[in-house]
Amino acid sequence: MANNTKIILGIDPGTIIMGYGLIAVTGQQVQIIEMGVLKMNPKKDHYERLRAIHDRMMGIISQHKPVSCAIEAPFFGKNVQSMLKLGRAQGVAIATAMQAGVGVSEYSPKKVKQSITGNGNANKEQVWQMLQRILKFTEQPEYLDATDALAVAVCHHFQETSPLATAGKSKGWDKFLQQHPERLCKP
Length: 187
What we know:
By secondary structure, the protein is α/β, with parallel strands linked by helices. The protein has seven helices and five strands.
């Protein structure tokens, strides 16, 4: 990879299947590095599965050295116990990235779908098909959790490079006051 290449890790958290996807961004070019899943035995102790998430995340981060990690926020479910377990899995993924010095951003499923397909209510297959067009790959993953994670990484890239992402943001008070001298209190 070139020195000016930025690697983004996308995570679709789960306690049975955790999807991950990595993209490389060089200038305006975005390409897929890898996508896959960590499939865990549902009969294993929940804490052992959390350890597996930590270990896999550390391995991915050590190997690919992403500059940022984008993670999908849990959606609201009816089963409180399932949501609690999913929140723990997400927390482990976030803490692992932060411990490794990787910045973390979170996106709602609707935001990810909107960013990739233009439709916040798109289904997993529509997201996968649009990613194939965007990233120019033909691979069909066994689990769509992998493409969901890839979509989170691409969504993060789109959010970072959007003109709206930097519009109106100043670089501190000095810059703000230079841009808005009318706001200075005059003695």
